[in-house]
């Protein structure tokens, strides 16, 4: 595997993890939103990845973003202007603990790939310096 393949793979994975972190941030931002029906209520979005090769290096890219199938939580609040005929509003199906765990995982993956890219950059610089000193 070449240094370039490794750097490309690391930066591609960083882009995928950044997308995952942005998606989680959007879910957390909508944690406390409510709607007048389960269909209108915010559904947590989940990023799925696909493994690819860049040259000889393996990495991930975003395959797609899917909506969670977890049910939205009904809340009895007949005085809310969004309440349905039975007096219910519907909260998002975002689970705070799951989102925080996903955010931590995405951040750690991002940082690991950043460290790989930094190490490969330093290796490339060392290689160039070594070649120059041998000339």
TrEMBL record:
Occurrences of domain Flagellar basal body rod protein N-terminal (ranges): 7-34
UniProt keyword Transcription, yes or no: no
InterPro entries the UniProt entry points to: Flag_bb_rod_N, Flg_bb/hook_C_dom, FlgC
Gene Ontology biological process terms from the UniProt entry: bacterial-type flagellum-dependent swarming motility
Subcellular location: Bacterial flagellum basal body
Tagged with keyword Magnesium: no
Superkingdom of source: Bacteria
Family as reported in the entry's similarity comment: Belongs to the flagella basal body rod proteins family.
Official protein name in the record: Flagellar basal-body rod protein FlgC
